[in-house]
Amino acid sequence: MATTVTGTGRVTVLPLLHMWPDRWCVLAYTSTGELGDTAVVGYVPVPGIPDVSLMDVAARHEPQRLYGSNAEGFADACWLICTGWSGRGMPKPGTLELRSAAWSLKPDRSLDLAKTMYGYDRLHVGQFALDDEELMRQAQNVLGLARA
After folding, report:
1. What does DSSP say about strands 38-44 and 5-19: parallel, antiparallel, or unpaired?
2. Could you give the C-alpha distances from 88 to 47, 95, 108, 124, 128, in angstroms and in order?
């Protein structure tokens, strides 16, 4: 697996309450690939907030009840893609929408989907960063905006 995946494009950054009632993280969603057919979902590291395994977050939601088999992490991947896709379509308070931004992802996992879901055939998931320092600060502050 590549040590870093990079790209430039539309990025959606949103607050995610991943464990009720008070465990939050910042989730970033974008795409890459020749035809934009690879989803990229990552957590943005925020000082003072522990890193999170997004695949574990997805698994806790039991996505196989909706997507069927979780072989090879398929249902977990679909849940993560749906969360990013939905967050873009119906933004929460505090969501940061960037029309074009350079980004990088340190993947925890990359997987091919068993079938096309939400327009994607593949997913990279891991730790996400925006190349621009000011945009990165804005992304890290999404939690402050969402909980204000």
Report:
1. unpaired
2. 24, 8, 23, 18, 17
**How confident is the model at residue 1, as a pLDDT?**
54
The pLDDT, as a whole number, for residue 88 is 96
Own/partner pairs for 83-89, CB < 8 Å, 24+ apart? Answer: 83/16, 83/27, 83/29, 83/41, 83/58, 84/12, 84/14, 84/27, 84/28, 84/29, 84/39, 84/41, 85/29, 85/39, 85/118, 87/12, 87/14, 87/16, 87/27, 87/29, 88/12, 88/29
pLDDT at 69: 84
Tokens read off for 72: 């090879």
CA-wise closest residue to 13 among 130, 133, 148: 130
Q: Let me know the angle formed at the C-alpha of 109 by 91 and 3, rounded to the nearest 5 degrees.
A: 105
